[in-house]
Specification:
Helix content is 35%, strand content 35%. It contains two helices and six strands. It is elongated and about 45 Å long. The N and C termini lie far apart (41 Å).
Length: 91
């Protein structure tokens, strides 16, 4: 099945998995603990589920700001049309 997202045409379901791995790499560059974060891409929608927190102690860290920044990055870099985020802070 062929789908078009922004400038990319996705033909292979394996491409959705590759995209999820690339998104996880980009999130990991932000020094975040993603062990409990599930990332799936399916037909132009990215699903973020689970828990997310900073690596180490960062008292100024804000989950809402971080998620908003991640959503913007996913939409801009990967041409994802929609991001569904059900993420809680890692305790």
């Amino acid at each position: 099945m062929e789908r078009e997202f922004g400038h990319r045409v996705i033909k292979d379901p394996l491409e959705f998995k590759r995209m999820a791995v690339q998104i996880r790499r980009e999130i990991a560059k932000r020094e975040l603990d993603t062990r409990y974060l599930e990332i799936e891409v399916y037909h132009g929608v990215c699903y973020l589920r689970g828990r997310l927190g900073p690596m180490g102690k960062r008292p100024d860290w804000d989950l809402k700001k971080e998620i908003a920044s991640i959503i913007d990055m996913i939409r801009f870099k990967f041409g994802i049309s929609n991001v569904v985020a059900d993420v809680r802070a890692l305790e």
